[in-house]
Amino acid sequence: MAEELVTIIKTSEIPAGGIVAVDVRGTRVAVANVDGRYYAFDDACTHEQCSLTEMGELAGTTVTCTCHGSEFDVRTGKVLAPPATVPVKVYPTRVEGDALNVDI
Amino acid sequence: MAKAYVIVGGSLTGATAAITLREEGADGSITLIGAEREPPYERPLLSKGYLRGEVSFDKTLVRPAAFYAEHGIESLAGVRATRIDSAARFVELEDRRRVSFDVLLIATGGRNRRISIPGSELEGIYSLRTVEDADRIKAEIGAGRRVVVVGMGFIGSEVAASLRQKGLDVVAIEPAKTPLFRVLGEAVGQRIADLHRTHGVRTIFEDTVAAFAGTHRVARVITKGGLSLECDFVVAGIGIEPVVDILDGTGIKVDNGVVVDQYCQTSVPGIYAAGDVANHYHPVFERQIRVEHWHNAIKQGAAAARNMLGRAVPYDEIHWFWSDQYDANLQYAGYHSKWDELVVRGRLDSGSFLAFYINAGRIDAVVGLNRAKDVRRAIPLIKARRMLNLGQLQNESIDLRSLNAGD
Asked: Which residue of B has its CA nearest to A86?
């Protein structure tokens, strides 16, 4: 099945340094605003499925799941600190005007 | 010249040290000696998801079993180290093998304290540290089964919660006034007691177990206060003692565990200790501290490895841990043993609060119930060791992160 870019949110709705959750065809996706760059990734932490929108702290490009301390790189999904061992899935994003498109 | 790195203790601390040594360029052999048969695994799930049958053992592994051999780490599992010769530089194993080392890490952890009272030899009395312990308790789980949990520290509280969640009839008995009383104090401990009672645990405080009764198996717990509690089995969570037996005769200083400096080094050069067993000098709190938590196991295991490589990096991590009970997330950061003021952010009776343990105007530690973000935001405040305006800590409209920037 061809993947396509879906407009999921206006960039103005995501504050700098903030994370906002959006529902894309049944998948809960978190979108982080890192100094005007937008990164999209699965909202559920791969450790115990805490919501990264609700429990995540964003510092630079690192999101920390405060439930149990797992850290991920929002650009790649890579685990930076345990207890998570599985990377979080990331999705490409593209800004068109004030629309944020996510490739899912 | 290539060195021989040897690690005694094949749990999270030891495995993390071995992995760190290899990843950060150890030139030489790495040998990981562990008494347990399983590949290194993490213990937090044993009292929670694993005990409840929600996650498999694989999920607890530090690395897949094949990782160690693939990365040039020799894993000697299921064999106990019995003696260290600090002069001749070898570790002796129970099968008489000798493993020579240039640099040694002691990560022997702890063993559960045993209850020694009449009837404590009966069957059906368990404690929890290893996956085998967890499997024994798991085998007793069944809806309507009656368990008495002895001790409401972290392990006892989590086991009580997990067994209650599995539909067991749970009685928990604790000598102090509340769960976690010694660490958290009465005001916060009461909230944890409420949590357990709300979920249907019968809690008994300020009473202790005097005897277990039954024929082959435990059938009743008799308390000093005169209660007789019928049960199908018992789980005791009354703490651990550091495993230091193998240090006999080494000259390594032992006092509440293995005494190490801020570089994780013992009193004998080239021999290090980390994890539950290590009583370490903490440069932030300026005192010796021994902690028994997952976070320290990982962080200190890695720090010890770096120092074994000669990096001379002080271990100054602010200790942090979580305890999930039912749907509540309890977290603690810092270190305190006493406090002259308890400052609360939010309301203690609200199910979501932060409590700061203050000594002389500085935060030594913080505990949060369902306040994970605030706990994390408080860690830099603890590390800074600054005098703070305590009113600001209480003020929910002030983001704790904003208190870090200024002075």
From this structure: B59
Among the partner residues A57, A64, A68, nearest to B322 by beta-carbon distance: A68
**B118 located within any domain:** no
CATH of the domain at B208: 3.50.50.60
Count Cβ–Cβ pairs < 8 Å, chain A vs chain B: 23
Alpha-carbon gap: B83 to the closest alpha carbon of chain A (Å): 33
Q: Are residues B93 and B43 in the same domain?
A: yes
**Domain for residue B213, yes or no?**
yes
> What pLDDT digit, counting tens, does each position of B227-277 carry?
999 999 999 999 999 999 999 999 999 999 999 999 999 999 999 999 999
Chain centroid to Cα B321, Å, comes to 9
Contact B375/A66, CB-based, under 8 Å? yes
Structural domain for B57, as ranges: 3-111+240-308
Nearest in space to B92 (alpha carbons), one of B322, B222, B248, B320: B248
Same domain, B362 and B393: yes
Element of type H or E holding B93:
strand B90-93
Distance, in Å, from the CA atom of A51 to the CA atom of A46, rounded to the nearest integer, reads: 10
Residue A87 at interface with chain B, using a CB cutoff of 8 Å: no
> CB distance A55–B373 less than 8 Å?
yes
Class of A5-103 per CATH? Answer: mainly beta
Number of Cβ atoms within 10 Å of the Cβ of B73: 21
Task: Please give the Cα distance from B313 to B306 (Å, whole number).
Answer: 7
- Do B331 and B371 meet the contact criterion of CB atoms below 8 Å apart? yes
CA separation for the pair B20, B3 (Å, rounded):
15
Q: Is residue B319 part of a domain?
A: no
Pair B109, B277: CB distance under 8 Å: yes
Q: Do A67 and B372 touch (CB under 8 A)?
A: yes
The residue to which tokens 């979580």 are assigned = B322
* Site of tokens 């299921």: B78
> Which stretches of B92-230 are DSSP H helices?
131-138, 154-165, 181-198
A18 touches chain B (CB under 8 A): no
> pTM for the full model?
0.94
Region B166-179: mean pLDDT is 98
Smallest Cβ distance to A67: which of B295, B320, B329?
A: B329
